[in-house]
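Need a sequence for this fold. Nothing fancy.
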């Protein structure tokens, strides 16, 4: 017997109608979630994603091209302060090799992600992008390389980059300071996101669910920030501790809350591109499939060279063998098939609502 309260049904319907709630309403929705309401909201989100994307799950090839980072974010395993990882960065030739492998496997989006590595100048990146675009003109290129100046973003856009992922991490400035050292600011992070939008990138933002000191109020502010930014993509996944960070003893984010937030985001952004992330699959076996069943519609298998994968540990036990890597595409396809979805290798650009 379903026992959702009338109040919760009203809130979910209001979210569906307006694509947003007030801060108090978002807090109410998240704080009073029970299993029946979670099932209800997930099924609504799934229906919306089916309406816009059918049973397609877009595939992106992730190339983690550097684990050098000049930042010291307290949650992240590749932070500058972690002296115990083997650092690597890929040459242009190695990146092209990853693209070649990915292209053969059918990938038509390449995501270059890395720490903030000053050894790649704008010129270096532009040269990599030119080579990628020359060899694979039918592919989309996404960058996820952190905060840069407006001019730098502009040069990257002009060189042919299509999309940019930069999670805002938290929209609450007090919380932001608890996750980052003093040289980083929420203000600059947001400035980057608005610059990227102005320059015409397809922009992705996002946050970790259950990061240390996060409250439901912080999450409500994240949702309101996303409503304001109107990104094309939103990546969220549970926080998972890494043993060589100041947050090594913090507890991981909640699986159910991550699924709930994916569903809320799907209802807010019916045509948005929402990945079911590796961290969700790391937290719970089959987590990514449940992410898809909560309204997500993108997966990002790993195309990095095998040795690099082991060194790109943002959090402990990050999946790096199995269906999450590109060569495991058959396994991934079978997992998606089992829940009624098909992998789609098309570029899968953001399409505005008509
Ligand atoms: N350096 C780029 C940036 O700052 O946007 C991209 C790379 S960064 C490592 C990618 C994302 O990993 C971050 O935005 C963060 O949300 C996520 N991440 C880092 N540490 C994590 C952890 N311990 N648990 C879950 N996600 C984490």
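Here you go.
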């Amino acid at each position: 017997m379903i026992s959702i309260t009338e109040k919760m049904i009203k809130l979910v319907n209001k979210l569906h109608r307006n694509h947003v709630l007030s801060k108090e309403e978002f807090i109410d929705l998240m704080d009073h979630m029970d299993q029946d309401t979670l099932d209800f909201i997930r099924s609504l989100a799934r229906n919306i994603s089916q309406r816009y994307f059918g049973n397609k799950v877009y595939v992106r090839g992730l190339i983690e091209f550097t684990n050098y980072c000049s930042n010291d974010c307290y949650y992240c395993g590749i932070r500058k302060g972690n002296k115990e990882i083997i650092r690597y960065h890929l040459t242009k030739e190695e990146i092209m090799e990853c693209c070649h492998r990915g292209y053969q496997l059918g990938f038509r989006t390449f995501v270059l992600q890395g720490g903030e590595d000053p050894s790649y100048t704008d010129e270096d990146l532009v040269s990599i992008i030119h080579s990628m675009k020359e060899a694979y003109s039918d592919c989309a290129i996404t960058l996820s390389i952190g905060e840069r100046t407006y001019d730098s973003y502009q040069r990257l856009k002009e060189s042919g980059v299509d999309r940019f992922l930069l999670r805002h991490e938290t929209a609450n400035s007090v919380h932001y300071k608890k996750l980052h050292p003093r040289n980083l600011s929420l203000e600059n992070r947001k400035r980057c996101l608005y610059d990227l939008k102005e320059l015409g990138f397809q922009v992705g933002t996002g946050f970790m669910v259950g990061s240390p000191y996060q409250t439901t109020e912080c999450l409500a502010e994240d949702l309101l920030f996303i409503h304001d930014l109107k990104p094309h993509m939103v990546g969220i996944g549970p926080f998972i501790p890494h043993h060589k960070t100041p947050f090594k003893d913090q507890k991981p984010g909640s699986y159910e809350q991550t699924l709930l937030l994916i569903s809320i985001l799907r209802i807010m952004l019916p045509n948005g591109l929402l990945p079911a992330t590796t961290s969700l699959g790391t937290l719970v076996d089959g987590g990514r499939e449940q992410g898809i069943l909560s309204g997500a519609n993108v997966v990002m298998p790993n195309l990095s060279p095998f040795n690099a994968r082991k060194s790109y540990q943002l959090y402990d036990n990050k999946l790096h063998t199995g269906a999450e890597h590109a060569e495991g595409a058959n396994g991934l396809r079978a997992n998606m098939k089992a829940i009624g979805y098909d992998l789609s290798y098309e570029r899968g650009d953001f399409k505005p609502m008509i």
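For context: The first strand starts at residue 56 and ends at 59.
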